[in-house]
Amino acid sequence: MAISYKKLWKLLIDKNIKKCDLQSMANISGSSIAKLGRNENVNTDILLRICTALHCDISDIMEIEESGDIEDKRKRR
Predict the structure, then answer these.
(1) Cα gap 23→35, rounded to integer Å
(2) Across the chain, which distance is largest between two alpha carbons, in Å?
(3) How far does CA 63 lie from the centroid of its chain?
(4) Count of H helices and E strands in the chain?
(5) If we measure between CA atoms, which residue out of 68, 8, 16 comes closest to residue 38?
(6) What is residue 77's three-state secondary structure?
(7) Run of H or E residues at 34
(8) Phi, psi of 71, deg, nearest 5
(9) What span, in angstroms and rounded, lies between the C-alpha atoms of 41 and 22?
């Protein structure tokens, strides 16, 4: 199983917010945005800042995917 932040990117699109805008709204670094883009682990404080800035719940920005789904996507790249 792995974490996916697809919900975060969809939420940003729905709210017409760019990644750089999120970075300043949530006061997070560019490297944290990059980690989120690669579905890597980030500190829970980062996730809390994002949820606070977007006025949403943690389940609105992330989900758990089966490992096979993630591995299949990596193989296709």
Answers:
(1) 12
(2) 35
(3) 9
(4) 5, 2
(5) 8
(6) coil
(7) helix 30-37
(8) -65, -40
(9) 18
Structure tokens at 35: 């980690």
**Position 24: which residue type?**
S
Token pair, residue 4, equals 């996916």
Q: Per-residue pLDDT for the chain (77 aa), expressed as one digit of tens each? A: 899 999 999 999 999 999 999 999 999 999 999 999 999 999 999 999 999 999 999 999 999 998 765 555 656 55
Global confidence as pTM? 0.82
Cβ atoms of 4 and 64 within 8 Å: the answer is yes
pLDDT at 66: 84
- Is there a contact between 47 and 40 (Cβ–Cβ < 8 Å)? no
